[in-house]
């Protein structure tokens, strides 16, 4: 079963690795935790409790949308089939909250 501390620990590990490598880190884990705090009924994991569902993948995509565009995905009309509009909006808000809480992204392309 999912232990909430696990996602927080994983997010911290990615942040640490990003800082060590001077690389940007997409705060997908933080967005997941925030989305679940807003709506605990969100189904973000497959039964193996490791891989994301379509909803979990959509939430991560909203994080990347926010990072790359610098804009909130809130109010966007698209959501994958099977995700209720209200839940999709919660995920879009959670993604923006996680991204906007961070310092501006300083992308380095190799």
What do these coordinates show?
- This protein has 110 residues and is mostly helical.
- It is 55% helix and 0% strand.
- The chain has helices at residues 4-21, 28-38, 54-69, 85-100.
- Helix 2 (28-38) packs across helix 3, helix 2 (28-38) crosses helix 4 and helix 3 crosses helix 4.
- It is globular and about 40 Å long.
Number of helices: 4
- Overall geometric form: globular
Class per helix and strand makeup: mainly alpha
Give the DSSP E fraction (strand runs of 2 or more residues): under 5%
Low-confidence stretches: 103-110
Global Rg: 14 Å
For the record, give the distance between the C-alpha atoms at the N and C termini, rounded to a whole number. Answer: 39 Å
Order of helix and strand elements from N to C terminus: HHHH
The major β-sheet equals:
none
Q: Indicate the mean pLDDT.
A: 84
Helix content: 55-70%
* Total beta strands: 0
Task: Please render the helix and strand layout as text.
Blueprint: H1 4-21, H2 28-38, H3 54-69, H4 85-100
Helix pairs in contact: 1-2, 2-3, 2-4, 3-4
Keywords:
single chain; about 110 residues; mainly alpha; 4 helices; about 0% strand; globular
Brief overview:
By secondary structure, this protein is mainly α. It has helices at 4-21, 28-38, 54-69, 85-100.
């Amino acid at each position: 079963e999912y232990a909430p501390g696990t996602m927080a620990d994983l997010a911290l590990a990615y942040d640490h690795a990003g800082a060590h490598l001077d690389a940007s880190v997409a705060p997908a884990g933080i967005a997941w935790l925030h989305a679940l705090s807003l709506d605990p009924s969100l189904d973000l994991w497959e039964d193996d409790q490791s891989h994301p569902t379509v909803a979990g993948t959509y939430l991560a995509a909203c994080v990347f949308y926010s990072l790359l565009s610098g804009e909130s995905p809130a109010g966007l009309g698209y959501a994958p089939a099977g995700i209720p509009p209200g839940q999709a909006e919660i995920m879009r808000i959670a993604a923006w909250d996680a991204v906007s809480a961070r310092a501006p992204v300083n992308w380095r392309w190799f």
